[in-house]
Amino acid sequence: MSQKKIFLVIVAISTVSLLLHHGGHLSWTMEAFHLGCPALRSHPAPGLKPKHTNVAFLKTHKTASTTMQNLLFRFAERNNLTVALPVQACSHQFCYPRSFTSHFVHPHTLPPNIITSHMRFNKAELQRLMPNDTIYITILREPGSMFESLFTYYNQYCQSFKRVPNGSLEAFLEEPWRYYRPDEKDSMYARNTLAFDLGGDKDRPATDVAYARAFLAEVERVFSLVMIAEYFDESLVLLRHLLSWDLDDILYVKLNMRMPSSKRSLTPGLSSKIRAWNSLDARLYDHFNASLWRQLSALGPACVAREVRLLRRAQERLMRSCFGGRMPLLRSATQIKNKDLRPWQPSGKVDIVGYDLPVNLSRGFSSQAQELCLKLIMPEVQYTRVLLRSQSLRYRRGYQLRPPQQSHPRQQPIRTVLPRHPQVQRSQPPPAAAGPASETGSIATSKPAAGT
Fold first, then answer.
1. Residue pair 251/318 in contact by the 8 Å Cβ criterion
2. From 7, 77, 335, 341, which residue has the greatest number of CB atoms within 10 Å?
3. Where do runs of H (alpha helix) occur along 278-300?
4. Nearest CA among 95, 111, 112, 107 for reference residue 55
5. Average predicted confidence (pLDDT) for the chain
6. Does the pLDDT at position 305 exceed 80?
7. Of 423, 438, 415, 168, which is closest to residue 318 (Cα–Cα)?
8. Could you give the CA distance from residue 390 to residue 357 in angstroms, rounded to a whole number?
9. Phi, psi of 227 (to 5 degrees)
10. How does residue 38 score in pLDDT terms, banded at 50, 70 and 90?
11. What integer pLDDT is reported at residue 261 of this predicted model?
12. Burial letters for 244-268: b for 16+ Cβ neighbours within 10 Å, e otherwise?
C-alpha cells in the first residue's frame, strides 16, 4: 500500500474516532458544512460577536411566556446579570394591569440588564430604565387557542367570564356584550389581551383600520423579534441569532401548562367568533406570524430545521440528566412534594401541572447540577422570590462596602451556582447530602405600552 493510501486510511480512522468521541459538536459542524449553514460555535470563539445581554421581554398572557421567562432568568444567573424585579407591593408582576413605570421596580434590582416579569408595556418608561442598546422581544399566540386558555384560566377572576351561565365559552361568544364590561376589574382578560398588554386600546372598534395599522407599525418599530408560541423552537433559533447566544442558552422545559383534561378543542365556527371578538389580537397575530416566517426564510429553512433538531436533542439530554435517565412526567400540584416546585393554581377548576425532581438526585450530582435542574423547572412565583433574595443580598453587601462619597451602592456581580453549560455532569465523589391586580387603563398608539 502506498504512503498516500496509508495516510488517508489513518485520517479516516482518526476522523471516525473523533466523531464518536465528540459526536455532539462535530456533528453540528459536519451538518452545517453539508447544508451551507453557519457552524454552531460556542463562546468564546474567534470571530463571534459577544453575547447581547440587555434584553426586555414583554411577557404576554397564556403564550408560553413563563417558559421564556425561566430561560431568561437562568441566562441572567449564569452570566452574572441583573434582572429588574417588581416591588413587593406588586407581587411577582409589575403592578399589572397598570401601565408600567420605573416606580414598580424593586430598588435592589437596579440598574437592570434584563426585564421579563408581567407588565403593561410603556415604551417611554422602559427606555428610561433600560440601557440604550436594549433589544425588545415579545411573544404572541393564535387568538383562538389563547382565548380558550384565558377563559378557562381566569374564569374565577374575570367578572366578564364569571357571570356567564355554566362557564360556557359558547354562551359568552354568542352575546359577548351581555357579559363584558370594558371598565371593570380584569376586563383585559376578556378582550384583545395581547393588544392591551402591548399598550393598545383593547376596545377600539374593529372598523378603525387606521388605528390598527398604526398600532402594528409601532409594535414592529419597537420590537426586534416577535416570537410565535406555536413555533416556539423556530422563534428561539431567531432569538439565538439576534442575541449571538449559544445553543445552551436557549434550552428549556415547558412550564405553566394545564392538564389535557382542562383543555377543549375549538370548532371552526367558535374560532371565527373568537377572532371577530378579538379582532386587534387577530391582526397582531396574522401580521407577526407572517413576519416570523419571512425571517426564518431569510435564515434558510434547512438551517433552521437543523438548529431545531439540535436544540431538541440537547434538551432531551439535559432532561434525562435531571430526571434519572428518563423524560419527566407531568404532575399535578398536589403530587409535587417539593413546595418550591408547585405551580400556582388559579382555581379548583383548572389544574396547572409541573414537575418534581427524583428523590435521589443528590446522589452523584454536584450542587451546581442539582441547582440547575431545580431552576429549570421552578415556577415563576418561586423563581422570582429566589432572584429577589439573591439580588437583595448583593445590594446590601454593596451598600455596606460603598465609600461615603458614593450616592449609589456599587453593583456587585450576582454569585450564582448555575453552571455555564446546562448539561448536567456527575461529580466524583458524590457530595454530602445537603393574583391579578384590579386597575385598568389604555395608552395611545403613539406611545404603545406593552404588557405581560
1. yes
2. 77
3. 279-299
4. 112
5. 83
6. yes
7. 423
8. 23
9. -75, 160
10. confident
11. 66
12. ebbbbbbbbbbbbbbeeeeeeeeee
Tell me the HSE value of 445 on the side-chain side, using a 13 A CA sphere. Answer: 18
Locate 127 and state its grid cell: 427606555
Residue 429 pLDDT more than 50?
no
Q: pLDDT band at residue 173, thresholds of 50, 70 and 90?
A: very high
DSSP letters for 167-197: G-HHHHHHSHHHH--TTSTTGGGSS-HHHHH
Across the strands, what pairs with 365? Answer: 426
Question: Beta strand pairing status for 257-258 and 352-353?
Answer: antiparallel
Among 405, 383, 416, 409, CA closest to 395: 409
Q: State the cell numbers at 345.
A: 393554581
- Contact call for residues 172 and 276 (beta carbons, < 8 A): no
Range 159-166 contact pairs with CB under 8 angstroms and sequence separation of 24 or more? 159/184, 159/185, 159/186, 159/187, 160/184, 160/186, 160/187, 160/189, 160/190, 160/191, 161/189, 161/190
Contacts of 123 (CB under 8 A, 6+ apart): 199, 222, 447, 448, 449, 450
Return the top range by mean pLDDT from 47-51, 230-234, 326-330.
230-234
Residue 71: count other Cβ atoms within 10 Å of its Cβ.
Answer: 21
pLDDT of residue 362: 60
pLDDT greater than 80 at residue 175: yes
Entry pTM: 0.81
Sheet holding 135-140, edge to edge: 83-84, 114-115, 55-58, 135-140, 225-228
d(C-alpha 140, C-alpha 373), whole Å = 28
319, 253 contact by CB (below 8 A): yes
User: For position 150, what pLDDT does the model report?
Assistant: 96
pLDDT at 322 over 80: yes
Whole-angstrom CA distances from 386 to 28, 226, 411 are 35, 28, 18
Quick one: pLDDT at residue 179?
Answer: 98
**Taking Cα atoms as reference points, which of 248, 98, 100 lies closest to residue 185?**
98
